[in-house]
Amino acid sequence: MNKITQNIRTLAKQLLEEKTVDSVIGFQQASLAHMTRPFMAKTIEDAQELVFNCNCRMNLTNYLSGLKNKVGIVVKGCDSRNLVTQLIENRINRDQVYIIGVPCTGLADKTKLLNTAKGLDIVSVEDDDDTIVIKTDNCSMSIEKEEILQDNCRTCIRHNPVIHDVLAGPAVPESEIQDRFKDVEKIEALNPDDKKAFFTDLLDTCIRCYACRDACPLCYCPTCFVDESRPQWVGKTTDPVDTRTYHLVRAFHDAGRCTDCGACEAACPMNIPIRVFTRKTIKDCVQYFGVEAGMDETLRPALDKFSLEDPQPFIR
């Protein structure tokens, strides 16, 4: 058991004993060694089920909407930025949430983990800062964490929570990333025909399961545009036009709000790198407005406010 997990369990036990919160939302080990699942600890005994490791990919702030009681919640840096946006948009009240912040050095991509195991059943995954040890029935292999990080973790600018009541571990150094948006710029440089081919191929396997929408903590419209029938904005089929429309409109709805937490991509059963859409909106918000989503409780999302100082060159 790592130190972060120990601290989270101790904090959760204390919060529940003192009735500071009614429950604590965190992670629990799943049936597969390389997976975790969301877990709500309501008793002191439940608190001993909480874990935190490189497999905690879900964004737990997705479970905060509609709160009636006070809860504790475990958040990583990117999660905390989503929580800030939810506060700004009045989805939750600050006094309803006790925030257990976790300094995070990155999460392991589940597909890369499985590929590293080469088809063998994974028995355990141990995260030791810069190294990950994967154990199977037949062998044990050690790999540099950098090699199997989720793609969003490679460009993360906020490893420490921007808002918290308590930290479950010491703060970690923040990253200064050069060419942070080189993946987006590579697509921007394509000619129109190549762009069309790129996105057609990208979405070719999409089955419209909406796992990306359901995993996103900021997709909380009472009725999603894909479910509207009067008027019907988009078809329900997997026709390429309907599929492209869904992904493009969803990206625009998250523009200025997305923190690149990677929950959408991690949830996709077809392993589609759908972050390319939201990455573009993040780049534009930084370039045109100098704004990163969820970094400041006093600043509304970039497309939710107007300033005379906003640069105008992109307006035609």
Explain this structure.
The chain is α/β, with parallel strands linked by helices and 316 residues long. The chain has helices at 3-17, 44-47, 77-88, 110-117, 151-154, 182-188, 192-202, 211-215, 240-254, 263-267, 275-289, and strands at residues 23-29, 36-41, 50-51, 71-75, 97-101, 122-128, 131-136, 140-144, 166-167. It folds into two domains: 3-107 and 149-304, no CATH class; 108-148. It contains eleven helices and nine strands. Strands 1, 2, 3, 4, 5 and 9 form a six-stranded mixed β-sheet that branches. A three-stranded antiparallel β-sheet has the order 6-7-8, with helices on one face. Helix 3 links the parallel strand 4 (71-75) and strand 5. The longest helix is centred in the N-terminal third of the chain and has 15 residues, at 3-17. The chain is globular.
